[in-house]
């Protein structure tokens, strides 16, 4: 990507005016996106993102500059321009870059290439056929395969030199069911840090049938009730509960400046003793995994909460300076257009001992949230929300009629205390997490669990 | 290699490669932004980026490819990728490139003065807002960030059929986001404003005062009992709700089955008080535009006229399919996307009374000021929404207390017919704008 001699010049220019740390992030990314609507290939896009982000720190003050113009003289000029935001003088920097050594934990078997197009279209057609056949009310199908390969080079004035290539593949399967005037969509979006082998090994028809089943079931469902209920949240992407209710509140971006309800609570009971929560960037080929984070540090397994006690935060370089704590391999960014920030990788609640059947049977009247959508949180107040895409009433310990999607809301600290049963069936789901440093692949995971009381945004009537 | 040289070389080599028609869509932007915390500059950003999308006709199909690297060695990449992408397309009704409209509206969307704003002026502005905020109320716990920026954007669409559309725009903005607290309670809030012409016109005192009022007025909030309530959606919340559902007016989404407005053209779909307009020719607003993403001259369109659905938004392809003229609403989600359909400057025609008057005429209800999780809690296809929200309880025509930890649910298609009154408070801060809306009844879930 860039030669060490040029990188050294850029870093020196960046430190001309008193910065104490400078870093470059060079990115060369190729995207491939195929889309099929109603069985017809109607979208085929590909292209290349290419640019550099230059960051300078002086204490916790940061300067960030980026450009997609990678001519040598222009890069040095950009670094100088960024440096001028600081007031100070330069020290001469002689750099001996040390390559960050890591074992590649995420083998890629079939790297993305244009030559895979015809095979991808075959796989998309399988999904289309399965979606169409999944339910008599399905009127439209939409299938897409997105993959990208991101080459990165991260180097800094501490002598760090790290390079890696990240490969992602995701398939989107969506069905629309129509019943009279009602239209409802169902969606499955499995993905991994992997090449085309992900889709070759996946039971595509089963995933597609699941999307069709959701659309077909929900189009005929009545509205969810409103008010506060016990909620049994299904495993896998149900982990969005923890992601929103707690995960974002543990990021140093919020904690470091005291703008999180979890700031200053290390060692305290913040959740039900049944809750142990982990963020693990090392899980082989998982959607949210990385060998090294976007500051060049190897990712690691971070225990956040253990038996309800707050054990750790997610900390990036600036957070580490602010909080005087070591970074956790959590510095991430969508692209060179963003300065890195502390972010989640694969976050999940560890297994407990209950079974799904026990949780349902022990709930007299409540909601069974079977598949979840995205959500959001205000870390300063811990007010969070996330959407249920498929839900059922629980009556007298049994799953009863389906009810349309609704939003679940709560306050993070309260919701974590109200988790009163945790299942033995941990699974993970894939999402895109949007925050200060852009949109990033993350896994949200959990076993099935029960929250004794949450507000569900349904309609009056029960 | 500048963009003109790049275009010439690309088109020349493309012709040799076998392309008949070719087009570039080039987007460039430049910005400076500062964030201040505790009277110090916290972050300073200087950003510059370009992106280019190429599309070309080869083998009777239109292939797409994009790059951020405007350099000689990207040309072969674009030509090969677009050919490969064209080869797999299966649509029969392929689009062709546009030679240009007869004439284009002359719109002034760029301010050189704005872009000359000194970075120190940005820093001073952000510091000033932070200082004023902290002076206003002792319950302010922290200014999380006070930010100021100027940015400019350039768009060029040119093709081998003679199309050449170029536009530049610029904006300066100031925002502040803060935390306030009382005992164990913390609330957050903020405000922002912008200028399209002159940074010094941004009223810093007003931003600070409004941010403080927005924030401290949330202290002491509690849910209300679950029930159906008369609702006033304040203009900013109403604008967000409209924006989230605006895709239902795209002919592309209608045709694909993603909008419940299918088959409703010419019919009454909203109350007679609802007129929905897309007006790219309005000046002094962020959504001003002289042409669309295919290079078609932009025009004013009424989508809903006094409750009746008059037209969908079209690009050339959807228009040809429907047997109508394009409405000039081709759109691209940045330079990477495929040509789709979107609005330029969409807004609901306002009513006559102010928000205060709407509140005063409400016996009991909820004023909603903020909707959250719109990306997840809405479904434009079905129109059903269920959203976390914040606001105030209205009793006897007065705001009696703040409300939080509640959700509001309803259906957007139904809501179009249930607007009792529209406020007169249009505020064009984005490209999709609604005045405050008074709705007879929506379901609130709370305690």
Largest sheet of chain A: 8 strands, mixed
Q: Please, what is the average pLDDT of chain B? A: 95
Determine the fraction of residues in helical runs of chain A and give it as a percent range: 10-25%
Outline type of chain B: globular
Describe the structure.
The complex is a heterodimer of chains A (462) and B (447). Chain A has helices spanning 4-14, 72-83, 117-133, 197-201, 204-218, 240-245, 252-255, 317-323, 356-361, 412-417, and strands at residues 21-37, 40-58, 61-67, 98-99, 138-156, 160-179, 182-188, 191-192, 226-233, 277-280, 301-306, 309-310, 331-332, 341-342, 346-349, 365-378, 383-395, 398-403, 406-411, 419-422, 427-435, 438-446, 449-457. The model of chain A has no long low-confidence stretch (mean pLDDT 95). Among the domains of chain A are: 114-148 and 167-218, PmbA/TldD fold (2-Layer Sandwich), CATH 3.30.2290.10; 226-457, no CATH class. Chain A contains ten helices and 23 strands. In chain A, helix 3 runs parallel beside helix 5. In chain A, the strands form four sheets. In chain A, strands 1, 2, 3, 4, 5, 6, 7 and 8 form an eight-stranded mixed sheet that branches. The N and C termini of chain A lie far apart (62 Å). With 447 residues, chain B is an alpha+beta fold. Chain B has ten helices and 19 strands. Chain B has helices spanning 3-17, 73-88, 112-115, 119-136, 204-216, 235-245, 251-256, 316-322, 355-360, 412-415; strands at residues 22-37, 40-58, 61-67, 140-159, 164-182, 185-195, 227-233, 276-278, 301-305, 308-309, 330-331, 340-341, 346-348, 364-372, 384-395, 398-411, 419-422, 432-433, 437-445. In chain B, the strands form four sheets. Chain B has a six-stranded antiparallel sheet. Chain B has a five-stranded mixed beta barrel with strand order 7-14-15-16-19. A five-stranded mixed sheet of chain B has the order 10-9-8-13-18, covered by helices on one side. The model of chain B has no long low-confidence stretch (mean pLDDT 95). The chains are: A alpha+beta (462), B alpha+beta (447). Chains A and B meet through strand 1, strand 2, strand 3, helix 2 and helix 3 of A and strand 2, strand 3, helix 2, strand 6 and strand 15 of B.
């Amino acid at each position: 990507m860039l030669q060490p001699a040029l990188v050294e010049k850029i870093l020196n220019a960046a430190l001309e005016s008193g910065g104490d740390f400078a870093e470059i992030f060079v990115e060369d990314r190729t995207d491939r996106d195929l889309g099929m609507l109603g069985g017809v290939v109607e979208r085929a896009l590909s292209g290349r993102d290419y640019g550099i982000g230059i960051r300078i720190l002086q204490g916790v003050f940061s300067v960030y500059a980026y450009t997609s113009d990678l001519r040598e003289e222009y890069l040095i000029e950009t670094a100088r321009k960024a440096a001028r935001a600081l007031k100070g003088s330069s020290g001469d920097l002689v750099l001996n870059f040390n390559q960050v050594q890591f074992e590649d934990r995420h083998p890629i078997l079939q790297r993305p290439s244009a030559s895979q197009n015809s095979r991808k279209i075959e796989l998309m057609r399988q999904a289309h056929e399965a979606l169409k056949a999944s339910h008599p009310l399905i009127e439209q199908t939409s299938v897409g395969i997105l993959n990208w390969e991101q080459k990165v080079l991260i180097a800094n004035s501490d002598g760090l030199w790290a390079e890696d290539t990240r490969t992602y593949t995701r398939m989107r399967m969506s069905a629309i069911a129509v019943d009279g005037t009602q239209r409802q969509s169902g969606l499955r979006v499995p993905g991994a840090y992997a090449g085309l082998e992900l889709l070759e090994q996946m039971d595509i028809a089963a995933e597609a049938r699941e999307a069709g089943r959701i659309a077909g079931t929900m189009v005929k469902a009545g509205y969810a009730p409103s008010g506060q209920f016990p909620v049994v949240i299904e495993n896998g992407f149900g982990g969005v509960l923890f992601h929103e209710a707690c995960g974002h509140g543990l990021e140093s971006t919020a904690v470091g400046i005291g703008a999180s309800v979890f700031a200053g609570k290390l060692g305290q009971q913040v959740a039900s003793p049944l809750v142990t929560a982990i963020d693990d960037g090392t899980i082989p080929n998982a959607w949210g995994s990385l060998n090294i984070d976007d500051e060049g540090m190897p990712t690691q397994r971070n225990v956040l909460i253990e038996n309800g006690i707050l054990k750790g935060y997610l900390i990036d370089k600036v957070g580490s300076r602010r909080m005087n704590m070591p970074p956790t391999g959590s510095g991430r960014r969508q692209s060179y257009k963003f300065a890195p920030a502390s972010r989640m990788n694969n976050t999940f609640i560890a297994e407990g001992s209950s079974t799904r059947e026990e949780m349902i049977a022990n709930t007299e009247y409540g909601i069974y949230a079977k598949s979840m959508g995205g959500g959001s949180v205000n870390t300063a107040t811990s007010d969070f929300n996330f959407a249920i895409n498929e839900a059922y009433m629980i009556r007298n310990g049994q799953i009863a009629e389906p009810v349309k999607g609704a939003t679940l809301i709560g306050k993070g600290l309260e919701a974590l205390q109200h988790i009163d049963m945790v299942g033995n069936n941990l699974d993970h789901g894939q999402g895109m997490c949007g925050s200060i440093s852009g949109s990033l692949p993350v896994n949200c995971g959990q076993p099935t669990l029960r929250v004794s009381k949450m507000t569900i945004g349904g309609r009056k009537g029960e | 290699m500048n963009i003109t040289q790049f275009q010439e070389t690309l088109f020349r080599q493309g012709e040799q490669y076998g392309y008949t028609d070719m087009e570039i869509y080039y987007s460039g932007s430049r910005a400076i932004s500062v964030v201040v915390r505790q009277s110090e500059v916290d972050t300073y950003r200087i950003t510059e980026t370009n992106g280019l999308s190429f599309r070309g006709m080869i083998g009777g199909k239109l292939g797409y490819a994009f790059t951020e690297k405007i350099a000689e060695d990207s040309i072969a990449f674009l030509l090969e990728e677009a050919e490969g992408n064209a080869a797999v397309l299966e649509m029969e009704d392929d689009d062709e490139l546009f030679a240009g409209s007869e004439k284009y509206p002359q719109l002034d969307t760029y301010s050189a003065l704005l872009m000359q704003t000194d970075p120190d002026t940005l820093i001073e502005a952000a510091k000033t807002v932070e200082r004023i905020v902290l002076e206003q109320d002792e319950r302010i716990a922290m200014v999380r960030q006070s930010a100021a920026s100027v940015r400019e954007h350039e768009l060029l669409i040119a093709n081998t059929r003679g199309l050449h559309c170029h536009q530049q725009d610029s904006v300066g903005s100031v925002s502040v986001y803060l935390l306030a607290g009382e005992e164990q309670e913390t609330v957050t809030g903020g405000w922002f404003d912008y200028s399209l012409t002159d940074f010094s016109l941004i009223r810093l005192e007003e931003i600070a005062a409004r941010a403080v009022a927005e924030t401290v007025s949330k202290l002491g909030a509690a849910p209300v009992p679950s029930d159906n309530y008369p609702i006033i959606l304040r203009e900013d919340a109403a604008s967000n709700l409209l924006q989230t559902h605006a895709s239902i007016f795209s002919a592309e989404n209608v045709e694909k089955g993603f909008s419940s407005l299918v088959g409703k053209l010419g019919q009454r779909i909203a109350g007679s008080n609802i007129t929905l307009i897309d007006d790219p020719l309005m000046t002094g607003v962020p959504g001003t535009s002289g042409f669309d993403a295919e290079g078609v001259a932009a025009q004013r369109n009424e989508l809903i006229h006094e409750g009746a659905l008059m037209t969908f938004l079209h690009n050339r392809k959807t228009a040809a399919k429907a047997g109508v003229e394009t409405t000039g609403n081709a759109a691209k989600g940045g330079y990477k996307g495929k040509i789709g359909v979107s609005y330029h400057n969409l807004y609901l025609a306002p009513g006559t009374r102010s928000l205060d008057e709407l509140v005063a005429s409400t016996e009991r209800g909820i004023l909603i000021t903020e909707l959250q999780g719109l990306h997840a809690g809405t479904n434009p296809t079905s129109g059903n929404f269920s959203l976390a929200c914040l606001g105030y309880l209205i009793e006897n025509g007065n705001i009696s207390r703040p409300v939080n930890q509640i959700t509001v649910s309803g259906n957007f298609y139904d809501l179009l017919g249930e607007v009792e009154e529209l406020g007169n408070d249009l505020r064009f801060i984005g490209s999709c704008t609604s005045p405050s809306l008074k709705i007879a009844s929506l379901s609130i879930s709370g305690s």
